[in-house]
Amino acid sequence: MLELIVISKVTDYIYVGNLNAAYNGRTLLIPCTCSPLKHCCFEDINECINASTEKRKRVLVHCRDGFSLAPMCIIQYLMVKQNMRLIAAYELLRAKYPVNIKECHQNVLVSLERQLQNLKKANMKKPYHK
Asked: In 11, 110, 115, 124, which residue has its Cα 20 to 30 A from 130's Cα atom?
């Protein structure tokens, strides 16, 4: 049986793929294995991605099939670290990679979008002091 390798370049240094891609690449690997997903997992993932990209090293974010959990982790990274909205991050990834995000992962992203937008609104309400 032929094992399919699924991998795509998302940004200059961030790649997304499946488990088979992880066994065939020369990048820092970030396996998405948190279950249930917690925001502390996102912090760890984001820290690893940042450490690699700052050194101009390629990083492969992967999960078993490569179509839901890993893409969700990259989308949340783009939302948190690149200040992208959920739809924009999803569209960027979808244009480069076959995404099929499970409903439970979609719910995590929608919840994160709400949190980020509420935080942004709260920060905008704070008075500016010199």
From this structure: 115
User: CB atoms < 10 A from the CB of 116, how many?
Assistant: 17
30: left (phi over 0), alpha (psi -120 to 50) or beta: beta
- Binned average pLDDT, 10 residues per bin, the chain of 130 residues: 77 90 70 60 90 91 89 96 97 94 94 94 73
**CATH code at 87?**
3.90.190.10
**Residue 44 resides in a domain:** yes
Length of the chain: 130
**In whole angstroms, what is the distance from residue 129 CA to residue 14 CA?**
38
Report the DSSP beta bridge partners of residue 15: 9, 60
